[in-house]
Amino acid sequence: MEQMTMAFEEDVVIKTEGLTKIFEKGKKRQVIALDNVDLEIKRGEVFGLLGTNGAGKTTLIRVLVGLLTPTEGKAFVLGRDVTEDIDYIRDRVSLLPQEAGIYDRLTARENLVYYGGFYGIPEEELNKRADKLLEIVGLKDKEHYQVKGFSGGMKRKVLVARALVIEPEIIFLDEPTTGIDTLGARVVRNLLKMLSSEQKRTIILTTHDLNEVSELCDRVGILNDGKLIATGKPSQLEEKFRAANLEEVFTGLVTGEGVYGGSTP
Amino acid sequence: MRPKFDAKTLWMIRKEVREVFRSRWLILGFIISPMFAWMFQGAFLSFIVGQTSEEPEQVYITIEDDGIWARTLYEEIYANRSTLLIDPLVNITLEEGQQLVADKTISVWVLIPENFTQELNATTKSTLQIVVNTASFRATATASRIDTFAKRVINAAIVIRDLQVNWYTISPEANYGHQLAIFLVMLTSVLAPAPYISKSFAGEREAKTLEALLVVPMSRVKILGSKLVAGLALTAIYSLFTAVGILTYNLSIILRVGNLAPELQQANINRYTVNAYTIPLIMFCQFLLLLCAIGIGVVISCLAKDRATAESVNSMIMLIPTFVIGILGFTGSLLQYGGVLLWIILAIPFSHAVLFLNAVLAGTGTLMGLSINVGYMIGFTVVFLFIGAKLFEREAIIS
Hints:
Low-confidence stretches of chain A: 1-5
Low-confidence stretches of chain B: 1-5, 167-174
Order of helices and strands of chain A: EEEHEEHEHHHEHEHEEHH
Largest sheet of chain A: 6 strands, mixed
Number of strands of chain A: 10
Shape of chain B: elongated
Helix content of chain A: 25-40%
Strand order of the largest sheet of chain A: 6-7-8-3-9-10
Largest sheet of chain B: 5 strands, mixed
Radius of gyration of chain B: 27 Å
Radius of gyration of chain A: 19 Å
Oligomer: heterodimer
Largest interface: A-B, 33 and 28 residues
Distance between the termini of chain A: 41 Å
Number of strands of chain B: 5
Order of helices and strands of chain B: HHEHEHEHEHEHHHHHHHHHHH
Shape of chain A: globular
Mean pLDDT of chain A: 87
């Protein structure tokens, strides 16, 4: 089997080797969205993907969930090659896409229950999970309302709950707190912390909020122009690049202005 | 224990159907369109019934022959003016008639030519000429009645005689009416699925719901199939209300002819109403047409960037051939055209719907001909759904 061909540490759930994704834009132009990315993420980690817009964060997630096929290199999720065993992977992962939409004509509860149904989870079990999640995100009293009347933040909460209703082993969250008010974002962060610490679920999230990264993430990876230019714990990166905080590390690396007090290492 | 894989598809279908049935305007469109088509048809044909069965028409007559058969025919027509709904019957000369024809101011002109009697006696055949302005339903119907009546008069007197009348069809107005029904059925059917299909594919992409949907552990073919099943639920509504529309149409005709003479009542009912046996066939044809439209719609929707583009392109692509076929249909049979034009016509699936419905409504269909029409529409749908499935599998579908 393919997963045996790679040296896979027992607790590694995501591994990429030389992962490259090139988009052909017409006959002459190419866009290299991912450039030779090597990455390992362990079970139970909250991994933050950082990068400016267009850095390749969304492309990386899309490759890992099988929406895009790698141009070169390999990507393994839960020990399975994404190009060969995507059904196995999809049964165990959940995705909250960036700017994800929601089915406006369904109620908050229906959005959760139907989505869970696509994963073959029995309806009774889905209803229990939906009860719990809607309670957590503070929408229990609005569970039977069609989502079309919800605010952007409320919709985002439903989407986060929807991503969790299948109780996935790995959760991909593309900017999960974007558009949610401060209190709502706090609810979502606490939920993610609980999922990581108590349920040992692996969470890969992209965000532009570096405070959120510092609060949530065990490790981060910084993408710039499709290249993974740094990985490590936030504190390690701050120490390595002698920066006061993660923002200095990030800004220095992606702008080329450098860290180490003004010079790139 | 988790249910089997098919349960996932069932959930997908449930979700699609639930969403569709919450789109009130969409459902309303699927109810109103077929009802409108047939109710409009009922109103239109009720007008024709009134024009052709109640209103008298001015008829010009010219007798160039002074033989017995010409005189007999004239006298019988004159004596039966009220039955034939002729008022007045105006005698004119050949020259006057030709002038009226040249001026295009004539409605119906009956010409009993020179040697009419002599030919009938010598060869057992003769020809009566009827010039009619077919733009007028009333004139056309009057001409039809004179045609039938003249043959009956001559043949009743001497059965071995054979009167030929220069007239091409017995009930052109019914034919015209049926073509209108077909055109409306076709037009509403090809346009009806567009909002749902656009919403379901391009709309999902535009609403940013497609990406999450495509990562669920189901093949894209099953996702596509689920959406099509929801589309079929809509077509079922459409077909149901087509049946209601046809029955309403039939009722409107029956009510309309209620005050006519008994023989006229039955004749009009026979001529204009849709036979109960043909209703399932009409619904079947409409179902196939909707499938074709869905197949085309899926392809367009998978290629379009957003819902508005999908709907615009869909309308354009559907309307152009529909109007071409519809307009050609008014000129007579689509099969009368030859060469490349015929092949182009036959390549359009809607042509087969017209041919099928024409044959069914006129009662002239053959098993082979109808099978070819049905087979082509099914084949066309399958090919387009296959292309749609391939397009739905592309990476670019999410971007």
